[in-house]
Design goal:
single chain, about 270 residues, Cytochrome Bc1 Complex, Chain D, domain 2, two-stranded antiparallel sheet, about 0% strand
Length: about 270
C-alpha cells in the first residue's frame, strides 16, 4: 500500500503544467515564424524603390485615372477643365494633396489622403508638362525656409490673411467654399498654390509677388508651423471671436455658478 501511494503522488502534475507547455509552444512557434519572415524580407529586393516611372508610365496613369474628366488629350470635358497650360506644378499640388481625382462634384475639392505615391504623382506631372507645358518646380532655395520671416509675415497679412487668417488657420468663404488651414502644407505646395491659383485662390505671378517674396511668405508659414502659440491654447487661432466666446461661456458661466453656489450656501 505504501508503494502504491508513493507512486501516485510522484505522478501527479501541477494544474498549470498544461498551460505552461502551451505557452512555451506558442512562443517557440511565433519566434520561428517572425525570424523566418524577417529573413525573407531581408533577402527580397524592394521593387517599388528600385523602379523609376517614366513619362509613358505617367501617361498610362493619367489615362486610367484622369482622362474621364480631363480628356485623353488634356482638352477637358463637361466634367473637368482643360489642363493646357497648368503645368506639372499644378498637377503635383492637386494630386499630392488628394484633391484629385475628385471624389464628387461640389463647391470645392476637399483635401484628402493622396491616392498615388510620390513617384506616380511625379510621372503624371511629367506627362502633363510634356504635352501642355506650364509652371514648373522652383529652385530648392525658394523652399528652404531661409528667407525673411518678418517680411513674409507682412506680405502674408496684406495678400493672404483675409482668407487664410493671419495665423494660417483658414476661414469660410461664400457659397460653401473655404480657405484651407496652412498648418500642415508643404513648402512646395505653398509655392504651387501661389503660382497656379487653385480653385478660389488668385494667381500671384512674379509681377505681383517676386520669387524672393514668395520665399519670404513660405518662411513665415514654416515659422508658424514650427512655433506653438505664445499665449498657450490657440482656440483655433480665430482671433477675438473665439476668445470672446470662450470668456463668455467659461468666464461669465463660472461667475454665475459661483454666485448661485454662494446664494445656496447662505440660505
Amino acid at each position: 500500500m505504501a508503494r502504491e501511494t508513493t507512486r501516485r503522488s510522484g505522478g501527479r502534475r501541477s494544474p498549470w503544467a498544461a498551460a505552461a507547455l502551451i505557452g512555451i509552444g506558442l512562443l517557440i512557434t511565433g519566434g520561428g515564424y517572425a525570424g523566418a519572415s524577417a529573413a525573407m524580407a531581408a533577402t527580397d529586393p524592394a521593387p517599388a524603390q528600385a523602379s523609376t516611372l517614366t513619362v509613358e508610365d505617367g501617361k498610362k496613369l493619367f489615362q486610367a485615372n484622369c482622362a474621364t474628366c480631363h480628356g485623353l488629350d488634356l482638352q477637358g470635358t463637361q466634367d473637368g477643365p482643360s489642363l493646357y497650360g497648368v503645368g506639372e506644378l499644378s498637377v503635383h499640388f492637386q494630386v499630392s494633396t488628394g484633391r484629385m481625382p475628385l471624389q464628387m462634384q461640389g463647391p470645392q475639392a476637399p483635401q484628402k489622403p493622396p491616392q498615388f505615391t510620390e513617384e506616380q504623382t511625379a510621372a503624371m506631372a511629367a506627362f502633363v508638362q510634356s504635352v501642355a507645358p506650364g509652371p514648373t518646380f522652383p529652385a530648392e532655395e525658394v523652399l528652404d525656409g531661409g528667407g525673411d520671416a518678418s517680411h513674409g509675415g507682412e506680405l502674408f497679412r496684406i495678400n493672404c490673411a483675409m482668407c487664410h487668417n493671419v495665423a494660417g488657420a483658414g476661414g469660410a468663404l461664400t457659397e460653401g467654399k473655404y480657405a484651407p488651414a496652412l498648418h500642415e502644407v508643404t513648402p512646395i505646395n505653398m509655392y504651387a498654390a501661389m503660382v497656379t491659383g487653385p480653385q478660389n485662390m488668385p494667381v500671384f505671378n512674379d509681377m505681383t509677388l517676386t520669387t524672393e517674396e514668395k520665399r519670404d511668405i513660405i518662411t513665415y508659414l514654416l515659422f508658424l508651423q514650427d512655433n506653438e502659440s505664445p499665449g498657450g491654447f490657440s482656440l483655433g487661432s480665430l482671433g477675438p471671436v473665439s476668445e470672446g466666446l470662450f470668456i463668455w461661456i467659461f468666464g461669465i458661466g463660472s461667475l454665475i455658478a459661483l454666485t448661485v453656489w454662494i446664494t445656496a450656501k447662505s440660505n
